[in-house]
What we know:
Blueprint: H1 4-13, E1 18-22, H2 25-38, E2 44-46, H3 61-76, E3 81-85, H4 86-90, H5 96-101, E4 104-107, H6 114-123, E5 127-128, E6 137-141, E7 144-147, E8 156-161, E9 164-170, E10 185-188
Parallel strand pairs: 1-3, 2-3, 5-6
Antiparallel strand pairs: 4-10, 6-7, 7-8, 8-9
Helix pairs in contact: 1-2
Amino acid sequence: RGCASAMLAEEAARSRPVVVVAADADEARRIANALAFFSVEEPLLFVDDETSPYAPVNPDRRAAMMRMAALSKLESSGARALVTTATALARKVVPRAVVRAHTHRLVAEDGLDRDWLVARLAETGYIRVPIVEDPGSFAVRGALLDVWPPNLPEPVRVELYGDLVVSIKPFDPMDQKARNEPLAEALVAPVREAILAREY
Length: 200
């Protein structure tokens, strides 16, 4: 009843990773929200498309981004709790090696080939736009690269000096102003489950 399942999952997650399987996507979101309230670490949410693959509609891009963000997080650092549904648990997912190969770590005061990264972002489903306002998009303006990975709550602004990353700062997508607290690094997960790289 109520938040009992989330409390039980949080208690179990103190000693080992936990997978919570919900009846449907709405129930999974409810449990994930309750679990986030009790937990010190945000749980991962992995749900399937709510439309039939045979329905004449486009796949839900935001749901695909959320799944790829969860897979990237699981591959890179793991999680204490994963909330999913039976249908999502049964579906095939992008292989771990592919997720690892197309998740990019941007590190402040480290080298970065901007043109190479821009090509990789396009391969993994990012949309190039004039101004970054939505997850899964990026913009290039001179020495600045703005990108919003689905695994981050806010977009980040990467300032470059040649091939050197000078700073990585989160910014507000509404007013486009950068925060004063720079990040040491940022993980850029793929946004599309079908990776359109040459080797695939």
